[in-house]
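Continuing the series of single-chain predictions for the mutant panel. This is the parent chain; the variants come on the following pages.
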Amino acid sequence: MAGGPALKGWDAMSNSGNVRREVVLAICCMSILIVGLDVTILNVALPSIQHDFHASVSGAQWTIDAYTLVIACLLMLSGSTGDRLGRRRTFQLGLLIFTIGSGLCSVAPSLGALIAFRMVQAVGGSMLNPVAMSIVTNVYTEPKDRARAIGWWGGVAGISIAAGPLIGGILVQAIDWRAIFWVNIPVGIAAMLLTQKFVPESKAPHPRRLDPIGQVLMILTLGLLVFGIIEAPNHGWDSTLIVGCLAGAAICGALLVYFEVRHPEPLIDLRFFRSPPFSGAAVVSICAFLSLGGFLFLNTLYLQDVRGYSPLHAGVALLPMAALMMVFSPLSGRVVGIRGPRFSLVVGGLATLAAGLISAIPAGEPNDVRLFLGYALLGTGLGWANAAITNTAVSGMPRDQAGVAAGVASTTRQLGSALGVAIIGSVIADHVTTVSAGPEFTSAARISWAIIAACGLAMVSVGGLTTGEWGRRRAKANAARMEAAAARLEEDRAPALS
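Parent structure:
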């Protein structure tokens, strides 16, 4: 068992063991609460930050993408670090760094400093979700209980992401944009103390070896890709810098695949992608969070700079999206635990597609009713899809690989969010010289909503195709191959350890 002796002791407990498992789940959900909030809470504060620091659209993009990009790059390394050094120890270190980074963000003297401190936050954040998921999957040993726990995990992730704009609007309006970072400090401290008391230490019996080449290539691939997309409106898509960045991303991505296939214990185990549900979950995750990241960046600027809303009014205007995402994320988690992920993925994709079409097709400035419908449908779609993504990614995987699989799923969430801000931010920058230019911004918004509609269509198609009987059959066969390979590796290691 991957959890080690401490967790075996829990298996022998009855009521007391169940209570402790629920406490551990609650602690792990606290971590995803603060990490999820920081993905979206900053959006409502962007116009205030731009005003204070005289920042451009690309500067605003980097305050968000510096965070999501670093998390995306380091999630897999952090997951393997937890397996090697101890999951509780790594989890506590992540909470400490994240809390310190939040405090630094709240006193940032310049835009450059804020971006740097957001990266510090992200280093800590990268140690939380994959390690916490590994803790949860090893504490909950029964498949049904684990599915329920993952459902709650996905529900809290959806709630935290959805609540960000409203909480951010309240704090920016009542205090200052710096207050959005204060929320993390008491939650982080409480989670550290509770972790020490309740979370058992565990390590992987045979942690994977480090893969520095894979880590460097992953950072270069994602970094060059996002940099090229964000900076393209400033330099031109055909400029030497942007063409070089995009070509470099493609080359580094190809090299990453080449080396990972040949590495005995790679950073990203490409065998996971032979499982249709896993590959489908990765695609759906990127599309869903590209939609969410792009939507929040687009609409917080639109509501405050074009419509002239206050930060609180903008947060309230986003409430249909946030509220429905909060309602449907836990509901989806329960449905996934009973019926599997297919229904949730298809419903989520259809609602996202409808949101994009309603907002993209009619010409002219959108009225309040159309805004409400678009926001409500998107929140419904993302709420249904979010909890199903993690469950789909880990379903059919060998148990000792569940944490790694969940780490890849978390990476695709962050990558999708970063791409959403980069792509839709670049659409805005390509169309307007000042954000307050109404007609030009409306044109950019329609293109952005069309991108969201395309993401919804991909979610429906891929989610429905990969979670049917064919996908489950292929996933089971792939899990058997991975378990056999792991057994052979164990046999090879045995003489060296004896």
